[in-house]
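Much of what follows relies on a compact textual record of a protein's fold. With that in mind, consider the following protein and its fold in token form.
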Amino acid sequence: MSQNVPTYVPTVPRTTLVTSIPSIRQYIERGHMIPLVADWPGQIHLRTAILRYLPLAQTPKPWHINLLLEISRSAWQEISKAVKEKFGSLYKDAEYLALKDLLDNSIPLVLDIYAVFFRSGDYNTYLESCFHVWTLFFRFSRKNYTKAPVMFLSDIFYWESTNHPILEVIKAELPKLSDATVEIFHSFLRRSTQKHTEAKQIINHGRFINQLHLDGNRFKEKFAHTSTWAAYEYSARDISNLTKKCACFLLHCFSEIYIRVFHHKSPLIFSSPIINSSSKKKGKAKEKSEESISLTAMKMPEAHLSHLSLGFNTLHKPDPFRYCDLTNCPVFFPINPNPIRILACGHSYHESCYASNDFKCLYCLAFLQDRVDKHVQSLLESLRDLNKKKKEKIKE
């Protein structure tokens, strides 16, 4: 009997060997444990198959980005009601509002501004979306993208003030004012040329592509066989499974926020501003003061205010301990209950206070007006400098 049954002592070193592997130890510390009978290193292979994530490419293909956004929106539509009911309508934690704003507003905006609003000819919604896109570019300091929307909106408002007939053409024929053909042509041209290609060769390539465009069948055939959108790797069943996995991932993120605030009683607190004077532009030191914040549930240990809702970028940030962010709020909540409204920017107001402000968030409105003025002035200065350089070249 003793010869057939292995003793406990030789088993201990083997168990220690398995748990000494960093990836296995981290897997166990997370609370995961799978009993498995396998020869070494079968335990490692199983853990790798279950836990390891595939790295996202640095420059993912357009269809891959679109797939991730669509899956995120579909997953949020399945769980949003349950999440909002769990947190309640008066929850103002910065990380919760940031993740909720991303799923409620930013992702749908990116997906719908062209595919739905523009292509359907919904002029008013498309115009409003252009301003929302500008606020995203502005929050993330995308210098090369903040000027174009301002120029477009400036033209629209000017045509409205002068009753220019082109405005009626834009409203009536919005889907036809697309540069898709130009972008496709440019993509083909870049794909068939290199950095060292001479100008004459580029012209010849352009003529060849234009000839394909005149021959509709050959052009469509070339686009279908060479486009990155043609190589779609996922079936409807795969997308359904990915949506469920994304929903589980989002639920895990919201669960971490809920546990941090309601169980650990640890609301999100902003750290002191960090001053960065290392960056230089045109030989001049450029100082940048920005507050850093840790968004652990969103896997962003060193996030910035730009990653939060718009209200957290203003001087008057939303206060999680106040029902109404209005400075001179006349309503005392415990005595005179008044419905509360939390806006997408993160600020909250009593309905009476919100109505007295003409249904606007005055803090964010003043903040955006100030930034629009600064960007317009910067754009005008750039245009003046460009005009000055052209005049100097003419004189030379």
